[in-house]
Amino acid sequence: MKIQILTGSFLLIALAVFQTASAEENHGYHLRMGSTASNLAAGCTPATAQVDLDINNVRGRIMNGGDMWWDLNNNAKYEIPKGSAKMSLFAGALWIGGVDAGGQLKVAAMTYRQNGNDFWPGPINGTTVSVDPAECTHYDKIWKITRKEVEDYVNGNSQVAPVNMTTWPGNGNAAYGEEHDLAPYFDKNGDGVYNYADGDYPNYNLLGLPINPQPGQCATCTGYLFGDETLWWVFNDVGNIHLETGAQPIGLEIQAQGFGFSTNDEINNMTFYQYKIINRSTYSLNETYFGQWVDPDLGNATDDYVGCDVARGLGYCYNGDADDEGANGYGTNPPAVGVDFFQGPIADANDGVDNNKNCTVDETCEQIIMSKFLYYNNDFSITGNPQTANHYYNFLKGYWKDGTPFTYGANGYGGATQCSYMFPGDSDPYGWGLGGNCSNPVPVPFAWTEAQSGNTPGDRRFLQSAGKFTLQPGAVNYVTTGVVWARASSGGPQASIELMKKADDKAQALFDNCFKVLNGPDAPDMAIREMDKELVLSLSNSQTSNNANEGYTELDPLIICDG
User: Fold this and answer.
1) 36 near 241, Cβ under 8 Å?
2) N or C: which end of the chain has fewer CB within 10 A?
3) What is the mean pLDDT of residues 400-411?
4) CB 336, CB 500: distance < 8 Å
């Protein structure tokens, strides 16, 4: 496609060092003059690694530069159904921002690498809060592995260890000041060193141990690999100058895994992402926000709407009418796609806010879930693409580019009532987005959606953020998100939205159970019959069954019973 280039030929020459990918006009690429970044940079080159997560009905591209779901050549790479050549997402990335004690704004974010990068491969030297360019190159890789590969080798069913098991980055390089333990691994002999020849392996929970918080930490569902297929990678925000946002670096090391499950239900259409975010700097970052940015592009990108479900912590995209036209479109009864913010940062103690919306204030280890939701358009208006560090940070906080707050109704700009969530429909019964809570609900004026506002469908982006909180030196926070997708056979976009929300309930239950599903080889042979309000499960213990002569007891959290 045609490349959109703004003025500034001298800047183009400088950027050629950092950015080789072309820029697509349809995705808001722009060049910004007058970058304020002035940090001493390590000189890392941009990440190049790309790997597909494709164990189930999704083929999603992951990159090692803080971004995902596209290929750096203007092509969307979140294909669902797999093999259909239909894409539901174009790009996604983490956004993180805050202010230090001296009032300096620090932001790390990515969109399309149109100006450069804010993230680079590799872990951080914990002493110097830097990264050596050689280590950036060494970690410009994504390790892809499956649970079955590991199980087969550990159980002796395969005599050859998979390559990514033999090269698994379980330990950092002490010569570069890296953390000793990096990618999760099971240490069979307890010597603290990953060596697959000693019986160590990438840490799928093959022993079925309870997953509890690490000592001194709040987060659960950590320390393991999840899914039937898993990608693991590590990146940082100190490897070079922040040319994407123009902001000062924070000092973040982010250890990430993306994973999926191969099943015969809605989970087969999902992917999940967990980020271990470590503040390697020596200072606190105040009024910090973590955000998940999404450019959805549901089939035909020019006729989309977006919305959110406050109670579910879900942002989603759907078609603006009942027919997603064009060669890239899904046709009639198009699907809906959503991103759920399952797990966010730990709130400041005694902040007086019910950050996880469970009607209890200031409990120990309270997490902040989706606290803001916004959309913006593919243009350079006040409600369009961010162009400076302040724009990125304003979006994270719930403000437009010019510093005015989001307002309830119409297009979210210039109204009388400040709000936190755009297009929530009827998903906010307590009026959380208007300042309400469980004890003091605030009446919601009307069910605000794009359709209700009469907006013209178009090429949208959305952002879910969690904050504000204080990011302490050395703090470890986890962010876990998941992509859900559903397509109704009739009833148009609204029917797909409702089906997608039901799928999201199953995704939430899966997260609440630390991503434990009944594995095919381990589950009993069974037949399921539905009788009125009962599910009758007939279990086989025959000699031909995979559980012959064994007892079986298991609670599946994904089965929700009423009454």
Assistant:
1) no
2) C
3) 97
4) yes
